[in-house]
Prior knowledge:
Elements: E1 4-9, H1 15-23, E2 40-45, H2 49-58, E3 62-64, E4 67-72, H3 87-95, E5 99-105, H4 121-152, H5 158-175, H6 187-195, E6 204-209, H7 220-232, E7 236-239, H8 241-249, H9 252-261, H10 268-279, E8 282-288, E9 292-299, H11 304-311, H12 313-317, E10 319-326, H13 327-333, H14 336-341, E11 346-348, E12 358-364
Parallel strand pairs: 1-4, 1-5, 3-9, 5-6, 6-7
Antiparallel strand pairs: 2-4, 8-9, 10-11, 10-12
Amino acid sequence: MPLNVGIVGLPNVGKSTIFNALTSAKAQAANYPFCTIDPNVGVVQVPDARMEKIVKLVKPNSIVSTTMEFIDIAGIVEGASKGEGLGNQFLGHIRATDAILHVVRCFADPEVVHVAGKVSPLDDIDVINTELLLADLETVEKRAVKAEKAAKSPAATAAVKTEFAAIQKLRAVLNAGKPARTAELDDDERLIARDLFLITMKPMLYVANVDEAGIADGNEWTRLVEQRAAEEGSEVVRICGAMEAEIAQLEPSERQEFLAEIGLEEPGLNRLIHAAYRLLGLITYFTSGVQEVRAWTIKRGTRAPGAAGVIHSDFERGFIKADAYHCDDLFTYGSEQAVKEKGLLKSEGKEYVVRDGDILFFKFNV
Ligand SMILES: Nc1nc2c(ncn2[C@@H]2O[C@H](COP(=O)(O)OP(=O)(O)OP(=O)(O)O)[C@@H](O)[C@H]2O)c(=O)[nH]1
Ligand SMILES: [Mg+2]
């Protein structure tokens, strides 16, 4: 289940710069709007400090991180939902993602063109969110015509009526200028909504692209974005795209030195990757042995057989039990043997809900 995150925003705000820093790719990033046309796709290893600690204790022959995918999409302008700019083409690319990073320009730099002529994050946010909303409204209106007819026919089934109810709720929310994700839907209605691939149904977080001075405490613009995000219940990650791009170019040894100089423990990108991972509702469990220590991605709330299925479908089908302990216990007691002696390694069954940071060993039979 490779999950992916789309990077959206106005043209020329730093999307490709951030994408390149994230993925060490060489997508074209340049100082003119609509530099990106076709989407750039890149795979990113999810950094995990716990993994490094496990590796130090277990000393395995090989290490495999978990990954996620980022997609750098063309800039959006006002009227995009009606075909302006690159129009519907890239809205389709956004529709195919699982979550959205919304990059907002929060740096001055007179050298870098702003499509609206001035830095104004709240206006920028409104332009993007409105276009996404209008695109969704069009999808919903189209479906509403058919759904209404079907629901009002004498032969209407319960399923058809549910569909119309869901469409009406979504339409009301979108017409009120709110994202589809704020609609209150029951489980059946949620399934209908899922089939519509609405953009504003996807989880979203704001990325405030700041200059170096704005990293530590933000600036007048990031405060506006943070306030707006708080009102919407969204998160904001503050990073300096230009500097992250430079850090990403450094050799690993130079990187630590550079970060220490500017008083950071890790690149801002790590925070961004972790925030995106959380946004997708993902957690990590580990398998650990002398051959290999490996991180695996699952949705929060997954039970042990489902987690086993991420490794191989046979593990899920033939699931018997999982030996489980938490990596924090490994760090406290220093070895799996010691964790076992403390009685903290438990044998868990099919109902066990896997925790973020669990170390699991599956027993199965097919
Ligand atoms: N000063 C400053 N410039 C930046 C920063 N991030 C990006 N830029 C510059 O902004 C310009 C546009 O960057 P891109 O990454 O190409 O922007 P984009 O959002 O991908 O643009 P489109 O693909 O045209 O939509 C480039 O000249 C970058 O060097 C930043 O944090 N600070
Ligand atoms: Mg670009």
